[in-house]
């Protein structure tokens, strides 16, 4: 296990190094270059040269790459071209909003997805199965930004049941602890704030949960179908165990392995969906920041985000691979 | 999503590789026979058929020019007044006074084009990478194995990055245009195809007919190109069907992020949907038509692809 971990860690650092090289090349190849973005159009050549020197753009490429790596390691992604503030600060400040939104979306996806997937597998081939599977396929086919916008128009603007934008009602007086508003509201005893935050979360979380929900339903269905056909399930049934025991101990416990894996991995992919959802609801998380960076061609900000997400992803993948051994005794024995 | 994605891809490979040994009829004929009774496959096939039909004949049957504007006479942008459905314009007019029905049926072709070109880019580049890796790993000796390992490591890292981000980075490089969207979405699909074809080719590499070809001295290059490759394409084709759906949706998302076609005159569903977001509260129909178009089409391709995948999976068949 230790050897395996060390090997994976080595592979991880090589992969990250490759990724940083790729990102550097990407950044260098961007059209226009940063000096054109910072200077007015009528700047003279001498002004351009001066700025290039100031930004270190006149140095050899390898020196630039070295500095680039050094800055990344120190989490210095430079300043956002649109706000002028350090990108690392911007990302850190907005992280809690996105984390809260992602957790809420995952809660919906898991809470609905696993029972629905189980039901579909149990009723395989019936119209319940067809309906659930089609519904989950439909979930992956709706563009998130459209779903988010329609939810907003119908439930917030037309019916007025829920707020349209932001994380709290404007002017709300709240105590900041972790930045997760619902959690903060509960631990500080400001339950009205927590409830307000929940109301602001519902629509964006539903929109964001559409794809994870669909994926979890299908994985659960496939996983349960796999397990239900196993000999030990038939044996358990034949022994006369209660159906609920068979379901809990024999079917779901084994079927949970791939489901647990995918839940961990989906958390990472939610960040991409958050870009689209948050922009619709002006949620103020990382997603909104990236949406703005994309539309305004704020490349340093975009790069910082891509780098953070990529590292996040690679690390989660590593953790998932390592956790297989913990989750599944069979994998442990094989290694 | 790497591990889950990889598992899914591996399973698809395994499915087609095993099913080939079945006694009765070819793999595809068997799976078509099974799919005939599947409501999923039928629904998918009908939707895809209709969509392709509209895409092909659309421009000839559209009642109006999709770019012709009747600006100012009936449409009042600042007051959010857009004529809705009526006998002469079945779907009403858009914010520039263009006939929505004509734009929808003309736009089908562009939308199909975006999906097909993006999938094609991913397919060709991914198949090339995966094919080279598999060929090197099988016939290249020790060095070949190293080449394969390096290629597949890189593919795994690329597989780990969310597709939208990959597409976003490519789109930032190329500037906003419909071509950008196609390339960006296509590039994001490369790792999936690469991994799939490599796995599928490796599964074929140890079969009897390859051994026979080696024994009678067929050159290695020819074994790969004319024996292994054609027999490995099954899972890749299934995946291409599924990717077509994703490509259409991702293309719409890129348009929404402002990286799509900057020409407002062009009729393409993704661009139309992104444009219509501005008028959502006053005239939701402008967004709903292209959205329904995209959703139904993507669903059609997905249903067809999933039905194909399921009909090829021997593990699920066993339980019937």
Automatic annotation (TrEMBL), chain A:
It is found in: Cell membrane. Residues 95-324 form the ABC transmembrane type-1 domain. This is ABC transporter permease. One of its GO terms (biological process) is transmembrane transport. GO terms for cellular component: plasma membrane. Belongs to the binding-protein-dependent transport system permease family. The keyword Lipoprotein does not apply. It comes from the Bacteria. It is a multi-pass membrane protein. Gene3D superfamilies: MetI-like (1.10.3720.10). Keywords: Cell membrane, Membrane, Transmembrane, Transmembrane helix, Transport. The keyword 4Fe-4S does not apply. InterPro entries: BPD_transp_1_N (IPR045621), MetI-like (IPR000515), MetI-like_sf (IPR035906). The chain crosses the membrane at residues 101-121, 133-155, 201-219, 257-290, 302-327.
From TrEMBL, chain B:
It is a multi-pass membrane protein. The chain crosses the membrane at residues 39-62, 112-139, 151-174, 180-197, 236-259, 287-308. SUPFAM superfamilies: MetI-like. Gene3D superfamilies: MetI-like. Keywords: Cell membrane, Membrane, Transmembrane, Transmembrane helix, Transport. Coiled coil: none annotated. Residues 108-305 form the ABC transmembrane type-1 domain. CDD domains: TM_PBP2. It is found in: Cell membrane. PANTHER family: D,D-DIPEPTIDE TRANSPORT SYSTEM PERMEASE PROTEIN DDPC-RELATED (PTHR43386:SF1), OLIGOPEPTIDE TRANSPORT SYSTEM PERMEASE PROTEIN APPC (PTHR43386). Belongs to the binding-protein-dependent transport system permease family. This is ABC transporter permease. It comes from Glycomyces luteolus.
